[in-house]
Amino acid sequence: MHQISIDISKATGFVDPEVYSKIKAEVVASHEQLTKGSGRGNDFLGWLKLPSLVTEDLTRKIKADAAKMKASSRWVVVIGIGGSYLGARAVVDALSHPFHSMMDQKEFPGLVYAGENLSEDYHAGLLEVLDKSDYSVIVISKSGTTTEPAVAFRLLKAHLEKKYGETDAASRIYVVTDAAHGALKKMADEKKYSSYVIPDDVGGRYSVLTPVGLLPIAAAGFDIDALIKGAKKMEKVCQSGSADENPAMVYAAIRNALYLSGKTTEIMVNFQPDLFYFTEWWKQLFGESEGKENKGIYPSGVGFTTDLHSMGQYIQEGLRMLFETTLSVNSPRTELRVPFVDGDPDGLNFLAGKRLSEINKMAEMGTLLAHVDGGVPNIRIGVPQINEEIIGQLIYFFEFACALSGYTLGVNPFDQPGVEAYKKNMFALLGKPGFEKEGESLRKRLE
Amino acid sequence: MHQISIDISKATGFVDPEVYSKIKAEVVASHEQLTKGSGRGNDFLGWLKLPSLVTEDLTRKIKADAAKMKASSRWVVVIGIGGSYLGARAVVDALSHPFHSMMDQKEFPGLVYAGENLSEDYHAGLLEVLDKSDYSVIVISKSGTTTEPAVAFRLLKAHLEKKYGETDAASRIYVVTDAAHGALKKMADEKKYSSYVIPDDVGGRYSVLTPVGLLPIAAAGFDIDALIKGAKKMEKVCQSGSADENPAMVYAAIRNALYLSGKTTEIMVNFQPDLFYFTEWWKQLFGESEGKENKGIYPSGVGFTTDLHSMGQYIQEGLRMLFETTLSVNSPRTELRVPFVDGDPDGLNFLAGKRLSEINKMAEMGTLLAHVDGGVPNIRIGVPQINEEIIGQLIYFFEFACALSGYTLGVNPFDQPGVEAYKKNMFALLGKPGFEKEGESLRKRLE
Fold first, then answer.
1. What proportions of chain B, in percent to the nearest 5, are helix, strand and coil?
2. How many CB atoms are located within 10 Å of the residue A344 CB?
3. What's the ipTM?
4. Hey, are the CB atoms on A314 and B299 less than 8 Å from each other?
5. Beta strands in A288-438 (DSSP E)
6. Which one of the listed residues B18, B132, B190, B309 is annotated catalytic?
């Protein structure tokens, strides 16, 4: 059991067999489009072969920079937004000690994030912490001009230079950006920052296996070779097999069939709080790939058993447009058992001696059946354990399945035309030169 | 501007005027039901008058216990799940330093949470941290037998007794539970724990203004008098006024009208990461109150501008069953401005000297208009600033609006029958005495 698996036996009963057959045939066609590069957005297929094309030169440089950060820094600030931080954060949070920021001594620097929001309190608070600790900065932005990370980089660069002087500051800045163009590339060349390339043919949400993800993951002390190894394995698995065997095709087909049956919201379920950001990464991947042309499955996430006591009621008995996809993890990394208590005051001595993971697993199975009985189809992704290799598999599996799923839905899974709308308005309202007229008309609408 | 406000001018255009008038009349009827106590679930209306009925005896005892925890503890572990922790966490996270767990020195203990999940790694990691720090425990559970908090309390009580001895451990345990019955009440009496009552007529998701919320909030160093004062103000505001003035009636009416127009998913939007748990609290309040009888608005949450780079594409252009409710906060607590950079490498010098909060506010306004243009109605909750008093207002406002909204939808907003289904299955699968037969049949279904 060193490979992820998929079980759709609790979902197929909710779809029309004819529709499902038709969809499976379409997924086969999507697979051909994708692997032949003949579909929409085919100038953004660089991620397809990333696992097998990562060079040792690249990973060597990443590991050397990670070692430098380890030697010099208590914290590494990762500046990026959307696809420029969610992948790294998903992997690092899944693998880290759940209370790492509360621990005194650490072998590796802790990662903190900036430029993924515009909160003044958040960034002021971060600078306050950094006043008292040694740190490095990884700044990740293709253009170097995206507002949130660019503002954060202005703040952090000034802070670093004040704290360490310009030369030492430069040795603490690592840049991941466009190969040839863009603001960050120019600065990196001038100031001699250690810099990395985001390939032109890899979009943000598919970029975790480039330096965008690999550099922060290595800086946090995790094994990027194993991550790539896992992804490579899944790259191979996803190449072939029928629509009933290839796990990415199975996932793409069943979720499109469910969508056509009126199940328009997919809830990604985990039973491990450290998978929260993996779900966030998945939400971007699928939401941004499919949510266009007034269609697409709405991606949502819950962490159980926590949210069984908040969203559980709705999922069990609310509007029936939901289906669930469960990340079903098998082995915890630690061992903790329920203590026996004399007199059994809470009536739980029948659990004494059991591991928490066993109770958690029975909660998972009990929930699965309860929700299916309530009319919520379930897709179960079997996850043997949480380590770098398995996460590498999961990343590639979901990326590949997402591309197939988007083609099957009939959209371009590699663009995001809707993300520009708010930016244009924001620039106009902020008085960016050239946007004066738009600004005026927007202000009128807000009066 | 010391009071929250509501602006529905960007939502009314999406609903049929006749439907909206009808709904407003129904909300007026719901208001009468609620205030007269004649509606469904009227044995759970204790929360209605909580703000004006909190006694000084109670707050004095809470403050004395908070002072004891401050003197003796680096951390306070709050054990609870669902309504027994989300309210406290919502308030404490909103008011805390955004990086409080990374700061060395603190005036007040930091809050950490246990028993809100069953993860073995999570609880083992927590015990590891607690091995090295002084701490106290607040355990919150009406019955004392809910699996997650009961398991966590077994672990923490054993850990405390080993660390401090039985007597000293008892002085570090604070219990919030049922007045007369239940496992925790019995233990508290026997061991002389400091204990507090959860009123019988207040359900979990409406309990933040009882000791369930007040004790942890006070332990974290926040002003519970101001919180209650704010809630009391809103208690008065919500009593009267027409369906076009009373903010709770306005919110209840427009969201029900949107629901009838096919807007079946409500996204709670914030632009401040520290409001994440406030959104989680809101999701439980509304999801658990309305999601039943195969109806109800699906509650979802996003944090912008972060999620504009993940969920933004879907919200702008995906399936049109969405509406947004924005928590529009006006004043940050700190001041931070964008630095000027020579040569303007990233083209952002037009922002130099501006506060981050100003850019964030323009992002909010730009997003609002972009999403409305994309077919997503917007409800804007004006929040003058984030402090105890305003949060108290928000809590009561949403609780009152939720009750009105549930009555208008035609459900009992105070029960949660669907939460039991997974528990029964879990007990059966765990071999709880008396559940043998069910266990057998469930295991067969899982084969």
1. 55, 15, 30
2. 12
3. 0.97
4. yes
5. 298-303, 322-331, 378-385
6. B309
